[in-house]
Each structure stands twice: as structure tokens, then as C-alpha cells.
């Protein structure tokens, strides 16, 4: 019977097979979920209170792997082989562990890890002395960590055999030491050197798996950070290419495609029952609003979510037929899942859509930056987009980031826009949050998720656990309900733990 275990080639400082250090959580999860026969069990552990600051751990128990990502950027920092029997591992065509001919894909007996002699003599070569970690009180075995550039192995050693003066080669070769209990891959010259900066050092490889492969030259560079300068101006900073500007109501769809490449999906915006909230592009006159409940951009935000969280194609015949008579069907959302944002292209602000005959007259009117927060309803629809608000609409300097809690951002923005309100009552009314329910599967009202983002899933949300907990499944708060808070030019979608799930940027009418 053929061995159904995945096979991985070890490349120190780079990764394990197709799993590259520096890859985004979104890219790794998407690849894993596309091959359920090889990766049948995926467990995600994270902190419910600090999901964008604390590390995220992805456990692949059926494959013997554990992947650790940083919280702010959600990039892979450490790959651990914790069970050598669940997958096949090799280095320069040499097997990491020796298997007997009787081994099979259904074998349940654990396979011992590689011996020190095998690692030292045949695979990775000589190494400097490592570190010894004494056992807890009452324990009989300590841990010895031996590292090579980009790789480290752990061995269990009888504590009574350990001595500071002992030769580690002789010690690890003796019966006092067991085979390696785990193997870790990282980026750096040694484990002691990289340990302190494991989650903060800039990764060498990109987030996108496509940018590492053979087609990297034909794939557009990835966006590292979006800086919002106010007045409808956004600056896209890229990994290696020069940054470029998006000026709302000026930048064309052709400009976007030239810089970012074709979108991953396009959603033609249909008409819906949200006009009471949305006030569409054809509205003749309207007073600029600072409240999400009155914001003319709210309906557009909802429709972006609808497409982003489904697998429908822009060529879906039923959608096209239903939208034929709608005057707004030329408007479209460009979904860039691998960049972490959506872009709405439509008629320029203040233009009567009835006078627009083709999409050639369209411009970018809104940008939606997604946080990809673990535990939230839209998790893993986009990779995480990091942003920074540098200036407000009046050109005043700010320093607000995607890692800050909304309360901190809100306090600053309330102070910035305090003088623009007529009185305290108007200020409180404009800044009151609007509840957005993302958990309902059916409905026919503007507040129902069938209107807001569509019923794309059935059954309960996937299980997850808090990385700060005791190791069991945590009792997590319901993240399906979010609140929308608006300020001039920006709209925040906020989770119950005060983390920002999505930031919408539009041009504020002064």
C-alpha cells in the first residue's frame, strides 16, 4: 500500500517543503484546507484577549507539525516537527529517520526521532555546544538543545549524567541521551541568537507562497502596509517595489490592475434593500454624515463583505440576469484576498450614475482593509492587512495603527473631530456604534446577514482554543456581532474584544 503521509524536504533558514518561513497565516491555512486528505486535522490556538499581539499556533497533529506565527503580521516564524512518525522528512535526499520495511500508513507505533549520530555525522555536520535545561523539581531528565544555522534539535538527557565539563558529543552519543524529541526550523544562525527576536525580526521570504515559487517573477509584489494620509489618499508600501498612491475619486481601475495585478475575484454590486442606510451613488443630494447609521458608505461595506466571504464568480449567470436592470450593476468590488483588502470602483463622488454609460468612467471610491482576526466571522477570507493612519482629513499628524485597540483610537479621533460638531448631543449621536450581526444565516431585513454578507456556511463555527489557557478548548465570546463606528473618512468594524476587524476608508465630503 502506498504511503499517504506527506513528504517534506528540510531546508534550514527557509522552511519545510512548501511551508516557508515568513508565509502568511492566510496562505498556509488556504493551502492546508485545499488538501484535507493530507491534512485532516487543523487546530488553531490564539489569545482571545490579544489576538493581534500574542503569537498564533497552528497544530497539525495528524502530520506531527506545529507552526507558530506572530500576532501583528500573522507570518510564520517557527516550524516544529513534534512527531516523526506522522510524515516523511528528508534533508538533501537523506531520510531524517530510518523506517523499517514493515512501516505503513496505518501504523500507530511512534517512530523514534533521529539519533544524535545520524544528525551529526550524516545530515547537518558539526555544531557548537548547545544549551542544557535542567528538569523541574523531581524530574529525572533535562533537555539539551543543539542548534545549527536555521535548525535546532532537542534531546532528553538523564539529569544525573549532566555536567558542565562534559563533552556534549560524547554525552549525546551515550545511552544517557535519547533520540531527538523534536526539531525546529527558523531563520537565523543559531537558536540562542534568534530566540529573543523570533516574532519581531523582519522575515526574509514573502508572505505569498506564489512569490517564493517558480512563477515569482510574474506575480505582482505584495503590499506590506497601507498608510492613510487623509483627504482620501492612501499610500501602498510594498515589499521590494516602490510605493504607490491611491487617491479616492481619481485612481482608475486600470491603475489598480497595473500596480496590483488582476483581482482574485470581482463582485458586480447588485441593487438591494439597503438604500435606507446606503443612499446609493444615484442619490441627488445628501448631507455628509459621520455616523455609521447614516453613513452613505455603509451599504457598500456590507456588499464587499458579501462577495469576499463567498465563492461566487462574477460570471454567475443568475447574478448577472438579476442585475441587468439595476443602474448600479457596473459598480464592482475588486477582491484582493492575498493582499488583505477590497477596493470599490464606481462613479466618482457627486456624479449622477444615470449619466455614466460604461465602467471606463469609474474610479476607486473606497478601500476596505481587513484584519483577519482569529475567532471573528470573516477569519481567513483575506490575509491580514496592516495599516497606519498618519494624517487626518485636515492634515494633522496622527499615529494610529491596526494593532491598537479601538477605544484608544476612538479617544484620539474624538479629540481631533470634537470642534466639528454643533453640540455634545450631536457628537454622541454621530459616534454611537451600530450593531452588525454576522451570525444569522437567513433573513430579509437590512440587519440580517443574508443582506450583509450572505449565508455561506452551515453549522457551528470551527473550534479554537485560547493560547493563554490551560490547553483545553476555551469558552470564547460570540464574535459574530460587531459594531460599526464612523469618523470623517473612516469606518471601523469592531469586535467585542475591542479589536478592529475591518477599516473602511472613503473620501469625506467637507
How would you describe what is shown here?
Belongs to the PHAF1 family. Residues 262-324, 453-477 are annotated as: Disordered. The chain is α+β, with helices and mostly antiparallel strands. The chain folds into 2 domains: 7-197; 222-455 and 477-506, no CATH class. The protein is 15% helix and 27% strand. The chain has 11 helices and 27 strands. It has a 9-stranded mixed sheet with strand order 10-11-12-13-7-6-5-4-24. An 8-stranded antiparallel sheet has the order 17-18-19-20-27-26-25-23, sandwiched between helices. A 5-stranded mixed sheet has the order 3-2-1-8-9, with no helix packed on it. Strand 2 (15-16) and strand 3 (19-20) form a beta hairpin.
Can you lay out the helices and strands and say which pair or pack?
Elements lengths: L6 E5 L3 E2 L2 E2 L4 H9 L9 E4 L9 E5 L4 E5 L6 E6 L6 E4 L2 E2 L20 H8 L7 E3 L7 E8 L2 E8 L9 H6 L3 E9 L5 H4 L28 E8 L2 E6 L5 E4 L5 H8 L4 E4 L6 H4 L19 H11 L8 H7 L8 E5 L4 E6 L16 E8 L16 E5 L5 E5 L4 H11 L7 H7 L3 E4 L11 H4 L12 E2 L14 E7 L2 E5 L5 E7 L4
Parallel strand pairs: 1-8, 4-24, 14-21
Antiparallel strand pairs: 1-2, 2-3, 4-5, 5-6, 6-7, 7-13, 8-9, 10-11, 11-12, 12-13, 14-15, 15-16, 17-18, 18-19, 19-20, 20-27, 21-22, 23-25, 25-26, 26-27
